[in-house]
Every structure is written in structure tokens, then in C-alpha cells.
From TrEMBL:
It holds the Pfam family DUF4112. The chain crosses the membrane at residues 55-76, 88-109. Keywords: Membrane, Transmembrane, Transmembrane helix. This is DUF4112 domain-containing protein.
Amino acid sequence: MDSSQTFSQSWRAGTTLRVGDQSREATLARLEALAHLLDSAFLIPGINRRVGLEAVIGLVPIVGDIAGMVISSYIVAEARRIGAPRWLIARMALNVAFDGAIGIVPLAGDLFDAAFKANRRNVRLLRRWMERNGGVRPNEIDGTAVRIDG
């Protein structure tokens, strides 16, 4: 596949990313897509609760929890690669460690893992830091809407 080809992400309408794009915005978009897949890709019918692949993988004792931590650590490594400060990397790593430590407990840990959503938390922390430091455009616009009747 040519690195200049594009593909559309179905998780967010209208978002198009270039394959191999290493910009901060492209990296953040990829991490947001990964966090969505890991933490909230599927809707459980009846209870209207979202879970992701990490919760499903975590059902396999020990090995699933370790695999989930390894995948979650990728988000932390990418944050470090794009220049996030040490305090942010430490906070993100603590989220992954806490999620993994509690996740090892059978059944209760799996329920906690489905609710805590460490990957979404970490990507949200990274996005806020990048928005404050000019690394990416804000996701939301601050201000007040005024209706103009013409």
C-alpha cells in the first residue's frame, strides 16, 4: 500500500487519515481510534453499556490482562514519542498499571476494566495537553453562540 493513499475511519464520519502520516494530529487520531476499539467499540444490548476488545481479551486469565496492558502501553509510548512531558507519561502509565493490577482479579477485575476505560482516559489526557500547548486544534470551540436574525 502506497503511503500517500488514504483511508476513512468509520469511527468518526468525515475523518480521513494518510497512511504513514507521523504528524501529531494524525498520531492523536490513530490513538483515539485505538482507544475506542479497546474500550468502547461494542454496545452490550439491554444494558446499553459499551465495552471494547480489551475487556473481551481480559476474560482470558492472566495472559489476557497482560496482553491488554501491553496494548495500552503502546498509547503511552506514542505519547512519549510525540513529546508529552514526564508528568503526563507517568500519569498515563499509572492508569495502565492500575487498570492491569485490578484487572487480574477474576470477574470483578473484568467488570472494573470494562468501566474504568484507561485507554480513553489516557488519550483524553493527551488531547487536553496537546490542545493547551498548541500541538493540535481544539476538539470543541469555547464561546457562546449568538443567533442573528436577519
